[in-house]
Design a protein that fits this description.
Helix content: 55-70%
Structural class: mainly alpha
Largest sheet: 2 strands, antiparallel
Shape: flat
Order of helices and strands: HHHHEE
Length: 101
Amino acid sequence: MNRVCRYNTFALSLFIISALLCLWLACASHAAEEKWPGVDGTVVEKYAGEHGRPAKPNVIELEGDALLFAFLIAGTVGGFVMGYYWREMTMRKRDGGTDAV
């Protein structure tokens, strides 16, 4: 095994261990007693009730701040995709060459 292959194996192992640790922490905290209610329960429902409009159920039912986490992940993935294709989006082809927009 050469040096690069050992590095890749170590990096992959570290990534898998980190992912499993994060998954375990997420499951453990989700199973724990809910001490911190989500934004929907503390803010949205409170102000909706004050203004006479009952809160509607979410389209995707996630407890606590899991919906915010889902939006965070979607935004992160969207940011990486946007960054990856940034040059193609900001450059236009003109007479066989490329010029900045």
